[in-house]
Amino acid sequence: MKLGILQCGHAPDPVAQIHGDFPLMFKRLFDRPDFSYEAWDVEHMDFPKGPEDADAWLLTGSRHGAYEDHPFIKPLEALIRDIHASGRRMTGICFGHQIIATALGGTVEKFKGGWAVGRQAYDIAPLGPIHLNAWHQDQVTTLPEGAEVLGGNAFCENAALVYGDSILTIQPHPELSNPIIADYISSRMGNPAYPLALMERAQEENTLPTDDKRFADLMVDFLTRGREAL
C-alpha cells in the first residue's frame, strides 16, 4: 500500500534534529515493510495532483489552527473532500483530526479548559482504556454529519472519530513516543503559553508507558480493512 502523508506542519527544530520530522516518525511507528510512503508539504503549498496519488492518506499535526486563515487551509479542505468522495481511506492526527472535521462540516475551537500536554488516558473502542501523548488546546466541538465518536475522555470528549468505512481520526499523537515528547517538553519549558505546572506534570509522567503501538496497529488495520477493523 502507498500511504500519502499530507504534512500540515513540522516538528520543532530541536525535536526534528534528533528524531526527524513527522513523516519519519510515522514510518517508524507503523514499521510496515509492505507500505511505501510519499509526503507532500501542504503547509508550504506542496499538494498532490489528487486522491489517486496514493492508496490511502494520513494528515499530520500542525502548529496552526484548523479555523485560521492560512493559504494552505482551503486547498487542503478541498483535497480532504475529494479523498473522501473517492472512497480512499484517510486518517488524521491532532490538526489532521481537526481539519478533516472542519472540511466535512464540523467545528473546531480553542478549548476553554486549556491544554492537554503529555500522557493522557482515553477510552477508545475497540481497544478500551489506553494512554497516548497529547499536545493540543484546540478541539473538535461539533461533529460533521456522518462522524461517530470512537472514544475520548472527560477533557476531550471527541478525541477519536470514525466516518463510515473510510476515515479514522485521533486527537492525541501516537507518533510522539515518550523520548520525543520529552524533547517537546524540554524545547518549550518556560514558554508562557504553557502553564508551568502542566509542563512539570507532563515531564514527571513521561516515564510511564503509553500505547502508541496498539493504536498504530489499529490505524494500519483501518487503512487496509476499513470499518471491520473496529
From TrEMBL:
Gene3D superfamilies, alphabetized: 3.40.50.880
Domain Glutamine amidotransferase: from-to ranges: 77-177
Signal peptide: none
Alphabetized GO MF terms: transferase activity
PROSITE patterns hit by this protein: GATASE_TYPE_1
Listed GO CC annotations: cytosol
This protein's UniProt keywords: Glutamine amidotransferase, Transferase
Protein name: Glutamine amidotransferase
